[in-house]
Amino acid sequence: MFRNLRPDPREVAARPGLDQRLVHEQDRAATMGRADRERVLQHFTWDEVARRTARLYRELLGGTGGTDRPRA
Fold first, then answer.
1. Has residue 9 been placed in a domain?
2. CA 2 to CA 30: how far, in whole Å?
3. Which of 46, 47, 56, 72 has the greatest CB tally within 10 Å of its CB?
4. In the chain, where does DSSP find H-type helix?
5. C-alpha dist (Å) from residue 22 to 6, 11, 13
6. What's the total number of domains in the chain?
């Protein structure tokens, strides 16, 4: 939706322009903030981090990694 407002993080020079645009477009900034918060709540909770970590460990130890629940 707002991809044109998300410059490549390596492009430091683009950052000040983005900040200025968002200052003047507060509705857009609020919409982006809500969308980003939702993404964080979906993908970066401690439960999700634990599931991904357990899956990675199982894969590294030769398991299938197919389940999201850690083995007892």
1. yes
2. 12
3. 56
4. 15-24, 26-43, 46-60
5. 11, 17, 16
6. 1
